Amino acid sequence: MTSEERRLRLSIDDQIENRYLEVPFEIPAGRTGNALEVTLAYDRDAAVIDLGCRDPERWRGWSGGARSRFVIRPTAATPGYEPGELVPGRWAVVLGLHGLPAEPVDVTVTIATGVDAGVVEDEPPAPPPPSGSGAASRAGTSRTRLGRDLPAPDGLTWFAGDLHAHTTHSDGTLSIAQLTAAAAGRGLDFLAVTDHNTVSHHAHLPGVGAAYDVCLLPGQEVTTHAGHANAFGDIGWVDFRRPATRWLSDVEERGGLLSVNHPVQDDCGWLQPVRTGFLELWHISWFLDLTATGPWAYLRAAAGAPGSAGQPVLLGGSDFHTPDQGFPPGTPTTWVAAEDRTPEAILDAVRHGRTAISRFPGPGEPVLVRVGGDLVAVDADGTVLVDVTGRRRRVRGDRVVLPAPSEPGPYRLEAPDRTLLAISA
């Protein structure tokens, strides 16, 4: 029922003082209205400012730099934000001051409530499930979509998936249904939806996953200028504004898993003074040069760092944002040896280190897995097995059992030209 403007002038000095600037506003008791709309305007060629919101009781959402507007209503909200009643009290628009110049830029925050607020955008139509999804679903959660039947310990199955992907709930271009359809089309059994600094997508995952017969894992990419980490599990929101030590303690206390993401990637490598037991070693950025050794150097340094718990569980993630990247979900593919493909079983397998990684999920793609203490190379004839010390040996045959190695992992398969093909603990 009101509309107000807040005009700010922000520079690098404001960022130095506080990276997360709150612009407070009041929703009076008895006049809560039925909608809130916030609009952010500034010169995007001069600065990068992220957008989010909290109410008096909880975090309501985050869209980073992907949006300049959001709407919250009791039963619907802009993706990235949680719907619900507009509780009375002191709210705040939260501005992430990601990039600001020396000279101040003009910033305008417009806050509208009630009839002055706009509408929530419609979701795009959900794609039809790929052919065969119904048959896979009827086969139960113990069957894989691809049917590769990789050798596994008794009672377990190797399921194919991707542990890092984004939707329109942060800076992805696909809805949850569109992303899930793409994962199903690749034959993935599971997919972690890890939107930035929000859990607004979590409520939608069970229904969408069931529609496409894909296990959707709830996740949040805790995102800051000093590094990103995936918090896995239905554990609620993790406050990215706190020190990374709190992320880790909060996640562990709630029963989740925290994985360091893309530790050597460009301007968002891992600078936080924290090591976790899980590491996204193979990120999509490694596909720029699959002979690069930077990730191996990081892994060796991290495993030997003071306070390290030793070798982390190794994970892969496509960090999927848009089909325009040219890399579909499952690039690379994380394989998990689990009792079934439910979220609980998949995360339990990750927790216990039963993972392997390959370039792609499909038949004929080389995979290296653990069965007991042995390594088994599948569809890997002519590749080269490399241990952690760099020692190499040729693999001859399509399914080769390599008796329990005396050296600790990880192990990897390479092409003769040193192109990375697969990783196992």
Average pLDDT figure:
94
Proportion of residues in helical segments: 10-25%
Principal-axes shape call:
globular
Percent strand equals 25-35%
User: What is the tally of helical segments?
Assistant: 7
Rg over C-alpha atoms, rounded to the nearest angstrom: 23 Å
Largest sheet descriptor: 13 strands, mixed
Please state how the strands of the largest beta sheet are arranged side by side. Answer: 15-14-13-12-11-10-9-16-17-24-23-20-21
Low-confidence stretches: none
Would you count the extended β strands for me? 24
Structural class: alpha+beta
Distance between the termini: 59 Å
Descriptive account of the structure:
This protein is an alpha+beta fold and 425 residues long. The protein is built from seven helices and 24 strands. The strands form four sheets. It has a 13-stranded mixed β-sheet with strand order 15-14-13-12-11-10-9-16-17-24-23-20-21, with helices on both faces. A hairpin with a 4-residue loop joins strand 4 (48-54) and strand 5. The longest helix is centred in the middle third of the chain and has 10 residues, at 176-185. The relative contact order is 0.11.
